[in-house]
């Protein structure tokens, strides 16, 4: 009997180890190969700044309540409360110790578009790499070049304060397996350059779906309700539906949307409020053609009630 029990225990251990190995293989971080970032040349800093404002980097990474040029000091520290616990936004200034100044382009690009840290760890999707996965290699290279021109900060953000089991990064591999994709969220006429640009901006650097799309209990997008509105991640009220099926915004014309993104005023002469204030200020810095592209895409997505 003892020998049979030992064989059974050995078989269970072997099965567990094999299952664990298979699970790790399926969910391990997947950085880009180094060759993916070769041959991009010198960054286009003007385009890098354009990507910077489209991505709203200051909204999360600047110190809270800063104004003017101080917004360009990406010192981190902002707490982001969620049902899983509190995330603390990191320092992404060019400081070599507290920030990401010692990172390579490959490490930065892998974090942005694959959600993996420089040490091979999974990053939490509070950092919207699920949207940034759509970024082109050129835009990543240009953004990286622009970030390196910004002021350094020695601020060290606190570690995340998450509940079990969300504080175990290995769990994120399973989350990515279920929800992470770099594919388009909806089908639009990509033969239309304006629509294609709008889709890229909204689904990629603009990461609009991160707030405007509802999520399931595991934090993944409800794919069939893209941009249909969702609970406010900051805890109060709701983020509105911005599809053509919205009872309010759905009636706006493309020019209404463009004016709102540029000035912050609605067709009814109301003004932007809440967390959208920061977003609107960032988008107002983009070329007019980009705001027009965003508006065209928002009018073309499937209507959701």
Describe the structure.
The strands form two sheets. The chain has a three-stranded antiparallel β-sheet, with no helix packed on it. It has 305 residues and is mainly α. Mean pLDDT is 88; it is low at 5-26. Helix 8 (193-203) packs across helix 12 and helix 10 packs across helix 12 (288-300). The chain folds into two domains: 34-179; 193-300, Cytochrome Bc1 Complex, Chain D, domain 2, CATH 1.10.760. It has helices spanning 2-27, 45-55, 57-61, 105-114, 129-132, 137-147, 171-179, 193-203, 209-212, 254-263, 276-283, 288-300, and strands at 79-82, 85-88, 161-162, 230-231, 238-239. It has twelve helices and five strands.
Q: What is the tally of helical segments?
A: 12
Fraction of residues in helices?
40-55%
Largest sheet: 3 strands, antiparallel
Envelope shape? globular
Mean pLDDT, to the nearest integer, reads 88
The overall number of domains is: 2
Say how many strands there are.
5
Radius of gyration: 21 Å
SSE order? HHHEEHHHEHHHEEHHH
- End-to-end distance, in Å? 65 Å
For the largest beta sheet, what order do the strands appear in spatially? 1-2-3
Q: How does the helix and strand content classify structurally?
A: mainly alpha
Strand content: under 5%
The low-confidence runs, each spanning 5 or more residues with pLDDT under 50, are: 5-26
List the helices and strands and how they pair.
Elements: H1 2-27, H2 45-55, H3 57-61, E1 79-82, E2 85-88, H4 105-114, H5 129-132, H6 137-147, E3 161-162, H7 171-179, H8 193-203, H9 209-212, E4 230-231, E5 238-239, H10 254-263, H11 276-283, H12 288-300
Helix pairs in contact: 1-7, 2-6, 4-6, 8-12, 10-12
């Amino acid at each position: 009997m003892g020998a049979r029990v030992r064989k059974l225990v050995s078989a269970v251990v072997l099965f567990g180890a094999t299952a664990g190995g298979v699970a790790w293989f399926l969910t391990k971080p997947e950085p880009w190969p180094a060759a993916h970032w070769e041959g991009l040349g010198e960054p286009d800093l003007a385009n890098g700044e354009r990507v910077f404002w489209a991505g709203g980097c200051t909204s999360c990474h600047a110190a809270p309540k800063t104004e003017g040029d101080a917004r360009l000091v990406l010192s981190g520290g902002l707490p982001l409360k969620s049902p899983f616990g509190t995330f603390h936004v990191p320092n992404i200034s060019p400081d070599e110790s507290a920030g990401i100044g010692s990172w390579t382009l490959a490490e930065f690009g892998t974090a942005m578009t694959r959600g993996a840290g420089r040490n091979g760890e999974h990053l939490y999707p509070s950092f919207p790499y699920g949207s940034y996965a759509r970024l082109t290699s050129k835009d990543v290279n240009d953004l990286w070049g622009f970030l390196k021109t910004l002021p350094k900060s020695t601020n060290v953000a606190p570690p995340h304060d998450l509940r079990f089991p969300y504080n175990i990064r290995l769990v994120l591999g399973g989350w990515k397996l279920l929800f992470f994709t770099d594919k388009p969220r909806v089908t639009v006429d990509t033969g239309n350059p304006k629509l294609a640009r709008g889709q890229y901006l909204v689904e990629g650097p603009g990461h609009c779906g991160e707030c405007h799309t509802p999520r399931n209990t595991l934090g993944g997008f409800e794919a069939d309700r893209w941009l249909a509105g969702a609970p406010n991640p900051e805890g109060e009220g709701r983020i509105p539906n911005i599809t053509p099926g919205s009872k309010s915004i759905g009636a706006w014309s493309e020019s209404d949307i463009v004016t709102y993104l540029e000035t912050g005023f609605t067709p009814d002469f109301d003004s932007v409020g809440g967390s959208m204030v920061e977003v609107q200020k960032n988008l107002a810095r983009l070329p007019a053609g980009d705001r027009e592209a965003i508006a065209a895409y928002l009018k073309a997505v499937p209507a959701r009630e």
